[in-house]
Amino acid sequence: MKRCVVGIQGADGSHLHRQGSESPQVWFPSLASLAAVLSDDNRRLLRLIHEKQPKSLTELAELSGRKVPNLSRTLKMMADYGLVSLQRHVRDVQPTALATEFLVVLD
Length: 107
Known about the structure:
Distance between the termini: 26 Å
Number of helices: 4
Oligomer: single chain
């Protein structure tokens, strides 16, 4: 799984620009939002998705012990940041983790 480099936007909405491989791919509006999205529970969830490759949110709920509505909200938020892909298959939604390792770049 590819490492994802994340950064935090400046107070004015600007992005810190770095050269090379440490240039952030995902930007968070604040350190608090980064901490919420990449909490211990959410990183465990990403690893579980990567390792077990569930075919639906129902299967993921059984594997994780979380309820489907809770997972749906969490995964939608992660998808908005590009950390998860959600593929709709008729009645099911299959989650795919796009990153499980993170490097946080702060100025």
